[in-house]
TrEMBL record:
Belongs to the TPP enzyme family. It comes from the Bacteria. It holds the Pfam family TPP_enzyme_N. Residues 375-514 form the Thiamine pyrophosphate enzyme TPP-binding domain. This is Acetolactate synthase large subunit. The keyword Calcium does not apply. InterPro entries: THDP-binding, Thiamin_PyroP_enz_TPP-bd_dom, TPP_enz, TPP_enzyme_TPP-bd. The lineage of its organism: Bacteria, Pseudomonadati, Pseudomonadota, Alphaproteobacteria, Hyphomicrobiales. Keywords: Thiamine pyrophosphate. The keyword Signal does not apply. It comes from Mesorhizobium calcicola. Residues 1-106 form the Thiamine pyrophosphate enzyme N-terminal TPP-binding domain.
Length: 517
């Protein structure tokens, strides 16, 4: 038995059964070990950003880590952007980064790099395996670190640790520490602040507090104690749809966000952080709440958020039978027709969304209306990129589809963002995943046009336009998708889009709609 076999066996003993991979020479012994482990599902990504983004999507839907397999420092570097998104989403992930044999490193071969320094900013935990005998304890430590609390871990596997022989190792299931008990003092402090500012309290929920059962409790607190319920700007995962409590998402534009929160005197955080502006803008604040707003943490990531909400409800004297407001039917709105628009796409997708679907939203500016409409859609899970690093949508949808093979995944994708990790379509085709990708083809980085206006530039010249627009030549998403094995078609009218969406939702395997707007 060699170190690579031990690593696989420890992962499998702890129910890590999926490995998203883009291996190289240093990882061949690990690849050979994976070949001997039929329980491990190995999924190839043609770019490391697809690998790490898919592991993020998988983790968000399972609350468990997948493994990634990356080739030395440059391979890791290619995957860092979506590791950043995963870290911001608080997703559990175990990155296995192969490296040169330990005795080869002093020779400074071409692929030699400082992997620890590359990994550390995008990881919650980093460790280099010391040798074959260190493989089992290091892998156990990586698994434990990925879940207590959930986050990104990176394990560096030198080639000689992978091929080195070890004695018989009996893989064991790692025992995880239970979540900390609810902090009753924090509950009482928050309850007192809510009573002291009726109607002027906001609560932000994220993580496990954004799941349907916890949202129901938060909704009872909201209705019974005049607390306004919010979500963060960028949502890692929220259970949405009819019959579920629907928090108001804090807007991305800074003026809209500060206006929404202007009359909040007390802000309660449940698994969340205080919201801040995405960027600094001249003459505008960085904090979104007033400086005199009292910001309190009920419970943090890694704590039992549901239990904390229940304790707060009880402390406030709100009954579990408290009536809450749920979204029911869609607002009365005519079915759009004629030229296709962003709003028409959002309305069509929300109305046609299948029960228990998963929505991965990286449409950036184009699908902003969808989130509000999703409150009236069939029950579903909603996810976004959380770190601001674009290129997460296609991989995230890929990982979510592998995590939940019986559920339809809808990827709302901006054309500019999609090009960062378009290779993920090939993985969807190879794995025959139930993903419908809707590309908002406006042929521009629309969000950057908005950011130019935000910094006071209202008219741009040719140089700026050439950096912000995606024309000359225009991207041909139908050809791109078909070239990677994904069936695709183009729509530029509402009628054509509706017909294609109906067809895509009824078929097996992946399908891409290029929605020209």
């Amino acid at each position: 038995m060699n170190g690579a076999d031990v690593l696989c066996d420890v992962l499998l003993a702890n129910d890590v059964t999926v490995c998203f991979a883009n291996p190289g020479t240093s990882e061949m012994h690990f690849v050979a070990a994976l070949d001997r482990k039929p329980r491990m599902r190995c999924v190839l990504g043609l770019f490391e950003g697809v690998v790490t983004g898919a592991a993020d999507g998988y983790a968000r839907m399972t609350d468990r880590p997948a493994a990634t397999l990356l080739h030395t420092g440059p391979g890791l570097a290619n995957g860092l952007a979506n590791m950043h998104n995963a870290r911001r989403a608080l997703s559990p992930m175990i990155n296995i980064v192969g490296d040169h044999a330990s005795y080869h490193l002093p020779l400074d071969a071409p692929l030699t790099s400082d992997i620890e320094s590359l990994a550390t900013p995008m990881s919650n935990w980093v460790r280099r395996i010391g040798g074959p005998d260190d493989v089992a304890p290091a892998t156990e430590a990586a698994f434990r670190a990925s879940l207590t609390p959930p986050g990104v871990t990176t394990l560096i596997l030198p080639a000689d640790a992978a091929w080195g022989e070890v004695g018989a190792v009996l893989p064991r299931k790692v025992t995880l520490s239970p979540s900390p008990a609810v902090d009753i003092d924090a509950v009482r402090t928050v309850a007192a602040a809510i009573r002291a500012a009726p109607g002027r309290v906001g609560m932000i929920v994220r993580g496990q507090a954004a799941r349907a059962d916890a949202l129901a409790v938060a909704g009872q607190i909201s209705a019974g104690s005049e607390v306004r319920l919010f979500s963060e700007v960028l949502i890692a995962r929220m259970q949405r749809g009819r019959g579920r409590v629907a928090p108001t998402r804090i807007p991305y534009p800074i003026d809209a966000a500060t206006a929404l929160l202007r009359d909040i005197d007390v802000l309660v955080l449940v698994g969340a952080r205080e919201p801040v502006a995405f960027f600094a803008y001249p003459g505008k604040p960085g904090r979104l709440v007033r400086d005199d707003c009292q910001v309190l943490t009920l419970a943090a990531h890694g704590e039992d958020l549901n239990a904390a909400l229940e304790a707060l409800r009880d402390e406030l004297g709100v009954k579990p039978s408290q009536q809450t407001v749920f979204a029911t039917g869609f607002p009365d709105e005519a079915t759009p027709n004629g030229r296709l628009t962003e709003d028409a796409i959002a309305l069509s997708v929300a109305r046609k969304l299948p029960d228990d679907a998963i929505v991965c939203d990286e449409a950036v500016t184009s699908a902003r209306r969808f989130f509000a409409l999703s409150a009236f859609a069939a029950p579903h899970d909603y996810m976004m990129g959380t770190g601001g690093s674009i290129g997460g949508g296609i991989p995230m949808a890929t990982g979510a589809a592998i995590a939940c093979p019986d559920r339809k995944v809808i990827n709302l994708e901006a054309d500019g963002s999609g090009m960062y990790t378009v290779q993920g379509l090939w993985t969807q085709a190879r794995e025959n995943l139930a993903v419908v990708t809707i590309v908002f083809s406006n042929r521009t980085y629309a969000i950057l046009h908005g950011e130019m206006r935000n910094v006071g530039v209202n008219a741009i010249g040719e140089n700026a336009r050439r950096m912000l627009d995606l024309d000359h030549p225009a991207l041909d998403w139908v050809s791109l998708a078909k070239g990677m094995g994904v069936a695709a078609a183009r729509a530029d009218t509402c009628e054509r889009f509706d017909a294609l969406l109906d067809s895509a939702l009824s078929r097996r395997g992946p399908f891409l709609i290029e929605a020209v707007i």
